[in-house]
Write a structure and sequence with these properties.
Elements: E1 2-6, E2 12-16, E3 26-35, H1 41-45, E4 58-65, E5 78-81, E6 84-85, H2 91-94, E7 106-107, E8 119-123, E9 127-129, H3 136-142, H4 145-155, E10 163-167, H5 171-182, E11 186-191, H6 194-202, E12 207-210, H7 216-223, E13 229-234, H8 239-247, E14 249-257, H9 268-273, E15 278-281, H10 287-300, E16 308-312, H11 317-324, E17 331-335
Parallel strand pairs: 10-11, 10-13, 11-12, 13-14, 14-15, 16-17
Antiparallel strand pairs: 1-2, 3-4, 3-8, 3-17, 4-5, 5-9, 6-7
Length: 337
């Protein structure tokens, strides 16, 4: 089978790998859609070669099952893949949070072969059924970026009573904008890329703020009549944005950090203590939450497909990363019939 690897310094290539064979408890998934995630760009641009197949946003069809499978999963099922695997029995794994396994975990696309390939093999317990109402592309989006944004908003209990600022309008931030709107909130989208701000506006953002042209905190205070937002979601990982999400909060505001990046300076006296602010961190989500996210998308009719701006075949995956690394697109997706 074909699989994409990073060869260093902004280059990638397809190579041949053996077709995966399921062991006991495993499932082989034929990949139908595999999303590109901003968390991979640092590795893509870095100097090191990776011999592990890239891609951690998988959706596809079960084509093989190993021995010892529980009922409820069959060849031909449409599935989303939770892209971590731990021991399966510790406290964190029992909660479906295998990325925090006490004995260590595999991250597919990083320490285990991922989804920019024809097939991948994973423990069958990492699969959840993809609702018939959703496309494989929507399932792939849910499996990381969209799910990450949703989980952060859920922690803050976002509702129609809130004005929410979403910092960063890459695929995770755009997902946050769409999901917050579906939860009923008024949304302020913040970024420094005009193309992404324009897309956020088309996807329903009530206000957009160009952080390269104006101070986002001042703009948010102006939009909210000086009070600040009830909740803010930080998706970019940029040090300045990490400070601004707190500075833009109103009294008793909530903020959630999901973007991985560099350390930031925070004024805890003024922006946390005196505001009685609540701060959440959020590292993706559990398998159970992935089911809930898919149900949320179906029931609220979230337009995830509108966030996907570019589609590529697996053969075109190297060109996909070249474009995605420029950071001007919406969601990019590798799609196979």
């Amino acid at each position: 089978m074909r699989g994409l690897i990073f060869t260093g310094n902004g280059r990638s290539q397809l190579e041949e790998f053996p077709d995966p064979v399921p062991g006991p408890g495993d499932a082989v998934v034929e990949i139908r859609a595999s999303g590109l995630c901003g968390s991979d760009i640092r590795r893509y641009l870095g100097p090191d070669r990776s011999d592990t197949i890239i891609g951690h946003e998988p959706s596809g069809v079960v084509v093989g099952l190993g021995a010892g499978q529980p009922p409820g999963l069959a060849v031909g099922d449409r599935v989303i893949v939770h892209h971590y695997a731990g021991c399966g029995v510790c406290e964190m794994c029992a909660q479906g949070y295998e990325q925090a396994c006490s004995t260590g975990h595999v991250t597919y696309g990083k320490t285990g072969h991922g989804s920019h390939a024809d097939y991948m093999v994973v423990p069958a317990r990492q699969l959840v059924h993809l609702p018939e109402e959703l496309s494989f592309e929507e399932g792939a989006a849910i499996s990381c970026g969209t799910g990450t944004a949703w989980s952060g908003l859920k922690k803050m209990n976002v509702s129609g009573a809130d004005t929410v600022a979403v910092f960063g309008q890459g695929p995770v931030g755009l997902s946050g904008t769409i999901a917050a709107k579906a939860m009923g909130a008024r949304v302020i989208a913040v970024d420094v890329v005009p193309e992404r701000l324009a897309l956020a506006s088309r996807l329903g953002a009530d206000h957009i703020v160009h952080g390269g042209e104006t101070d986002p905190v001042e703009a948010i205070l102006d939009i909210t009549g000086g009070s600040g937002v009830a909740a803010s979601l930080e998706t970019s990982g940029h040090p300045a944005a990490r400070s601004q999400v707190l500075r833009s909060l109103r009294m008793f505001g909530r903020s959630c950090y999901v973007g991985v990046g560099e350390p930031a300076t925070i004024d805890f006296n003024f922006d946390v203590i005196r505001k009685s602010a609540t701060i959440y961190g959020s590292w993706t989500f559990t398998r159970a939450e992935m089911i809930e996210i898919a149900r949320f998308v179906v029931e609220t009719k979230v337009a995830l497909a509108d966030m996907i701006t570019h589609r590529f075949s697996l053969d075109e995956a190297p060109q996909a990363y070249q474009l995605f690394a420029a950071a001007t697109t919406g969601k990019c997706m590798i799609v196979e019939d």
